[in-house]
Amino acid sequence: MQKIRKGDEVIVIAGRDKSRRGVVLARVGSDRVLVEGVNMVKKHSKGNPMAGVAGGIIDKTMPIHISNVALYNPETGKGDRVGIQVKDGKKVRVFRSSGAVVGAKA
Predict the structure, then answer these.
(1) Is the confidence at residue 105, as pLDDT, over 70?
(2) What is the pLDDT of the chain when averaged over all its residues?
(3) What percentage of residues in the chain have a pLDDT greater than 90?
(4) What is the DSSP letter of 79?
(5) How many of the other CB atoms lie within 10 Å of CB of 43?
(6) Please, are residues 102 and 71 in contact by the beta-carbon 8 Å criterion?
(7) What are the percentages of helix, strand and coil residues in the chain, rounded to 5?
């Protein structure tokens, strides 16, 4: 079971974007995630007049290593580690600090 999934709100805990929050847009491989608005870079793109694509410098979101993000816990307002427990015969993700189920409505 993946501890960080698409759609989770995460907080960056290391790197140049430290303490920024965003939503996971996608998993890239097994150890990287694409986080909205985090690790933005400038990419030079070549135009293609046949396809109607303009060239220039674009801002692009690049993947960040999964060890540099932590799941955001809205109760504490901080990043939190995640554990996996079996409740009612199903595996669920829980916050390590409080034991609350991730994504459960309080």
Answers:
(1) no
(2) 93
(3) 91
(4) E
(5) 11
(6) yes
(7) 5, 50, 45
What is the spatial distance between Cα 57 and Cα 105, in angstroms, rounded to a whole number?
42
pLDDT band at 31 (very low <50, low <70, confident <90, very high): very high
Give 10's contacts (C-beta < 8 A, 6+ positions apart).
Answer: 4, 21, 22, 23, 24, 33, 35, 69, 70, 71, 72, 79
Q: Is it the case that residue 106 has pLDDT exceeding 60?
A: no
CA distance 102 to 106: 10
pLDDT, tens digit (0-9, with 9 covering 90-100), for 59-95: 999 999 999 999 999 999 999 999 999 999 999 999 9
Using alpha carbons, list the distances in angstroms from residue 20 to 14, 39, 42, 55, 76. Answer: 10, 10, 19, 30, 16
- Report the alpha-carbon distance of residue 60 to residue 42 in Å, rounded: 6
Structural domains of the chain, ranges and CATH numbers in brackets: 9-45+57-95 (2.30.30.30)
23 neighbors 38 (Cβ within 8 angstroms): no
For residue 82, give the 3-state DSSP assignment: strand
